[in-house]
Amino acid sequence: MLLEIKDLDISYGDSAPTVQDVELSLAAGEVLAIVGESGSGKTSVIRSILGVLPGSGRISRGQINFAGQDLGHLSAEEWRRLRGKEMAMIFQDSGNMMNPVQTIGHQFREYLQTHSDMQDTEADEMAKDLLGRMHLPDPDSIMASYTFELSGGMRQRVGIAMAIAFHPQLLLADEPTSALDVTTQAQIVRELMQVVRDSGTALVMVTHNIGVAACMADKLMVMAGGKVMEYGSAASILDKPQTAYTKKLLAAVPEIGGVRYV
Ligand SMILES: Nc1ncnc2c1ncn2[C@@H]1O[C@H](COP(=O)(O)OP(=O)(O)OP(=O)(O)O)[C@@H](O)[C@H]1O
After folding, report:
1. Dihedral (CA of 236, 242, 246, 252) sign
2. Which regions form coiled coils (predicted)?
């Protein structure tokens, strides 16, 4: 297994664990969607995998194993080598993670050079190649642009291009489509699926949209109140949800002409 989480509790400060008893496993190339209402603990779970829990957040129990390593015992240097290279994160709005007063090109080059010893021209060529692969037209003009000059969908494509630069084994995505309109959401979902198919990357994606989860995921985890309500094959959970909570989530998906679009 590429990723294995056992008995995971996450606590903020000294209070009782906010997230409890998370268990999951993911093989190379598999897609897991974590769904649930706001505050259910979805983001905490993926942030714990990347070792970037906010504020006083910490893993208070359990284990996360990734590619044969126990992430609870990594040194700062080992984390630095892992992040960006072996696992990378895609955020809800990649534009927010970038500097508004530096061009995309400048930031992309800096990102590539942080993780490699590439010279400027080599880094620029690689960045343009990655932008082209994400179907962004005219990579030269994207490189010269500032984040505010790009649409939300274009910014997400830039974020994904950066995240896949070093062929990570695992991508973590936190609501990667929720800031986008429905048409652009579908395009970004397609881009992500293509990345997963082309490079055998595993993906853990947090979404409140069970429709997006249904069309992408091999596995599904439904969370509520910091606990796992259901976890398993996406097809079987969507077909036969076991808990009232999952049924409620599914019932909230709109029906068109009697067909439910999940
Ligand atoms: N920085 C923080 N400091 C203290 N508590 C936090 C912090 N971040 C999250 N929490 C706690 O963890 C709980 C779960 O938050 P989390 O962001 O993981 O949920 P979520 O399901 O991803 O919600 P959302 O969909 O709104 O992002 C919160 O309700 C809060 O109690």
Report:
1. positive
2. none
100 CA distance to ligand 1 middle (Å): 26
Q: Which CATH superfamily is domain 3-260 in?
A: P-loop containing nucleotide triphosphate hydrolases (3.40.50.300)
Say whether 216 sits in a helix, a strand or coil: helix
Ligand 1 center–CA 44 separation, angstroms: 6
CA-nearest residue, atom 10 of ligand 1: 12
Ligand 1 pocket, CB under 6 A: 12, 18, 36, 38-44, 54-55, 57, 208
Question: What tens digit of pLDDT does each residue of 38-83 get?
Answer: 899 999 999 999 999 999 999 999 999 999 999 998 999 999 889 9
- Tell me how far apart the alpha carbons of residues 217 and 221 are, in angstroms, rounded to a whole number: 10
ipTM score assigned to the predicted complex? 0.93
Q: How far is the C-alpha of 194 from the C-alpha of 156, rounded, in Å?
A: 15
Q: How far is the CA of 43 from the centre of ligand 1 (A)?
A: 7
